Records
---
Amino acid sequence: MIHTDLLDDYIINQRQIRLQKKSHRVNSFLSNIAKRINLRLQSLTILLACVSLISFMSCSSDDTDEIDKRKEFTQIVENRSAKDLLNDLYVGSDGDIQSLARMLNVTPSSIERLRKGETEPTDKFDKRIKEVAIYYYLHDRSYRQLRACLKDARWYEYLIWFVIDNPGWFIFDFILSLCISLIIAEEFPLPAILWGIMFIVYIVAAVLYFCVTPAKMDDKYIDTINPTIEVLI
């Protein structure tokens, strides 16, 4: 009986020892994994910190350049007359005096007199002209961006401008999407339907872009000056 008890105690002790060894191995394994994860997290944190620092420095540099450029352009604009600035905008608009008048919220006849030097702008309108001119110069003299900023562009013009500015990409994407839609149309008709809708939208946009002309502004100051905008020289 005593030998049996001793044998049972021995077996129990051996099991406990094996369990302790297994537990130790598991703990060591988990500890190694935790250390590796911790090292990778530290490396990732350092990498992200470096990327963030570089991005911040780049953004700071870009912001500084933008501020310097704005200061320089502001000085240039301040030294120029409203007549010269309006003529620059007139050239940028390709002679579209109606568009220019809509953006500046004045009548076309006033713009014509001001840019020809027949009248001078009021102080308030002179400031407005210079604000618009600064934006125009800061954006590489892009009249399209100026129109978009001043809410003079219509939805279909954005679509056509994209096609004009990216003809190669647009044609490639158009043909590729058409081919994919036709290949999978039997099992998945939705892409083909969406492609057809997109095609119709671009056709409508092209028709509107080339055929629709905005209505001319009602000009009440053809024979007289607008006292809130201009003064006689």
---
Amino acid sequence: MTRAEGTGGGRVGGRLAARVGRLLRSGRPRDDAAFRLHLVESAVLTTAAIGLSAWLAPEDPFGVHAGFPWLWLMPALLSLRFGTVIGLFAGGLIAGTWFAVGATWPSLRSVFPQHYFLGGLVLVVACGQFADVWHERLRKVREANHFLSERLQALTRSHFLLQLSHQRIENELLVRPVTLRDLLGELRTATQREPGELPGGRFLMQMLSQSCELEAASLHPVRAGRPLPDAPARLGEGAPLDADDPLVRAALRTHRLAHVQADQAAALDSRYLVCAPVDASDGERVALLAVERMPFFALNLENLQLLTVLLGYWADGLRARTLVRRVHALRPDCPADFALEVVRLGALRRNSDIDSALVALVFDRSPESTNLAGQVRRMPRSLDMVWEIETREHHVMVHLLALAGPAAIEGFLARIEGGLRAQFDTDFQRARVGVQVARLGEAEPEWTLDDLLERCRVPVPARLGATGSPPPAPPAASAGSPSAASASADA
């Protein structure tokens, strides 16, 4: 055998061992408490099956001489329900029971039935592998749906804010020259720059005072599911939060905004008019808003909807602050929304093995390339995000392909090149469009993005050095000419 053949065989064996290990690990729940519960459940059911078999057929309690090994149906069903590990545990209980009672049970004083137990083991493993494969597929689908639901919720809030912004412009432009869009931009900036426990909380309260006509309100941080009595951000004068107030308890119990018109019984004993939990899109609660005074005519459905959406928008920005900071430490000019999606998709790849990728298209500064970039700008997928970067020599378009594996990357590039060929009768090579691909993998996503931009020869802005000491150097990356039509993938 040659050295190349031995190396190839070792790689195939290593991939097969890794595949088997992943399937076995997928049969075990991620929650240790659930795994222990499954073990107890399988032990009880298997013991009950053995006892029932011994009661029905004392002369052959394990069904060795029966026409069908009915006792192995229980480990097979447990394997189909919980996976290979639980099924093997149940089969081990049957074998252990045979050795434990074989010396005392008269009908079991015979030769160990090897074919009986081997056949049962094969049945359990086959059922378990079937269950493990589908459990893994279902888990990936759930993770992908969870990511899409978060995107949908954030998009719904943005759409509602856009609608309200247009209504405010039409109805109150003469009275309030500042638009809701400008206020949201200032709120996002304050959330990213202000220190403290609730960054941007004071500006949020001023914004709510102007947009929702709040007169006396307080914003309380939430720890371990309970709001703190002290308020880092407050409008007007007020006492510490009363955690036993009926409206406060109703808001925390229902996870929704509670006000005096919706709960007349609680309004009689409450000192608050509105209590609203501040939840991010992923369900994490960051604060509680308690309103003590506001105009009577401001307590309407439209105003309360605006209040809820503004609080959710601020909570999403607060949740994303720490994630975006990791990318901005390497690339401070990266848009906040793009940086947030890169970090979230990187975590989705590590936790659920769902692929995503970064694809960079590098154009030169000629007028023809400008037209090509404009055509590409009109062809992204609905889930994708695009970051356009201008340098002295090139125009770089970085596409973030969410939930995209190798086939989706090839399809995306083929679609872009097909559009250029149909519109301009050219392709990547003739138009001297550089293509660089980086798949989000086990490495940190911010390093993957930085490595991709280095291969595209995008310099880091000079203001990075002014923010403090730079982060440690990223791992070495292969350099490619951005003007060449080459594609490189980072696994």
---
Amino acid sequence: MLYICQQERWNNVIEVKDMNSNQIDFSTFKFYNSKMFQLISQGIADLHCRSDRYLAEEV
């Protein structure tokens, strides 16, 4: 269940990012290859508490 919630969250971040660039493939690539995604996935950063908009702007 947690995995599904995380995937939904990442999709929301990518959609917000895509609204700015209109290139969903590029937005997806950039998010999943970002340092921020690595930190969140490893549980190192508390960035999962931030809003989707904040995360999209930081990527």
---
Amino acid sequence: MPAEVLARTIRRMGRRNPNACSAFTVLRLRVPASVSRLRIEPRRTGAMIGSLGEGEPEIATGDAGFDAHWRVSGPRPDEALVLLSPGMRSTLVALRASLARRAGAG
């Protein structure tokens, strides 16, 4: 099942302090239309949403390096695991590390 990662960083200027800004990186996986609802979120965000009792149950990929940083949820674990191939998980982990380095340097 082919998937493509698209990343875009959006910078928003601070309202009170024009010198302050926040950067948000949005990842979008382009997947076949037949794929059911699937969420892949940073672990911290996903844990907060999960604690509210909202959303689908978490799907563990079995990849400790990926699961430590990303939370996957959806109604079809089998489908999620096919979509999140070792290559896709590696791409997402590397992208997260790259963004974290950039955020630390800025």
